[in-house]
Amino acid sequence: MRSFIFNIAYWSLSGVYAIVCAILALIPGRTVLMHGLRSYARATLILMRVVCGIKIEVRGTPPKDQPVVIGAKHQSWGDGIVMMAKCGDVNFVCGDHMLKFPLIGWVLKRCGAIILSNQGGPAARDSLMAGIVRSQGEGRPRPVLIYPEGHLTEVGSGMRFRSGVWHMARALDRPIIPVATNLGQCWPQQAWTKYKGTAVIEFLDPIRPGEDRDADLATLQERVETRSRALEAEFATSGKASHGETRPMTGTARICA
Predict the structure, then answer these.
(1) Is residue 147 part of a domain?
(2) 249 near 237, Cβ under 8 Å?
(3) What residue intervals traverse the membrane (predicted)?
């Protein structure tokens, strides 16, 4: 029942904010629009906590208003929402599948988001380079959030990190901030069912990209995946202490139904 209530409330909230932010996008600049988007993100976190008992714990220091590239683990639809709520005025790289939602394409363009083709290839590279040029021209640098895997992954698994994060960090001359998470154990990918618990978002030590792209990507992936596995194990064992049983790695112990 709790998952049902949350999803109805979440999608209703999203619909209202889509309209509100589309109106705010008419205002010159992006300051007011970004306030609206962050308000939506914070409201969603409140719904997660109050309705489903999903708490967010932040470890490390979120790079608010800092010129960095954030290379984050992506295992939940809620990842971007949490990052927007915790990282201030953050720009983000997203796939063109987001354009299928009404009004979203307009809002994304107005807030300066970098929209890549999910098919990859020259179109994705061109849109990435256009986003880099646009980011270089911003008067006040802000964090750029990118998910190097390019797709949502299941808890306990990962995909090869794509090179876009490295190219962006090199072109902008910014460090990469790795981010690990276990949010997928509470909100798995795009699943309807949610699970009660504390999800951790952990900001790790920065990586300054050098000349060796493959080595830098391997370092980033190793840090993100190793810490994400550790956070998943921590989530699973915390269920044993709290409820007398071990939570599965997929987070299926405390269902919000």
Answers:
(1) yes
(2) no
(3) 6-27
Domain that holds residue 170: 2-243
Nearest to 48, CA basis, from 93, 2, 88: 2
Residue 129 Cα to chain centre, angstroms: 21
Question: Residues in the chain with pLDDT < 70?
Answer: 118-121, 136-139, 239-257
Q: Are 175 and 68 in contact (CB under 8 A)?
A: yes
Report pLDDT digits (tens) over 119-145: 666 777 777 777 777 776 666 778 999
**Tell me, what DSSP letter sits at residue 251?**
-
The tokens describing 15, both together, are 């619909």
Provide the 8-state DSSP code for 180.
Answer: E
Q: Rounded distance, CA 63 to CA 48, Å?
A: 23
Domain assignment of residue 251, yes or no: no
How far is 65 from 104, CA to CA, in rounded Å?
24
User: CA triplet 165, 131, 69: central angle to 5 degrees?
Assistant: 35
In this predicted structure, what is the pLDDT of residue 121?
67
| Helices assigned H by DSSP within the chain | 2-24, 31-52, 79-86, 104-110, 121-136, 164-172, 213-243
* 147: three-class secondary structure by DSSP: coil
DSSP 76: B
Please give the Cα distance from 166 to 155 (Å, whole number): 24
In a domain, 252, yes or no: no
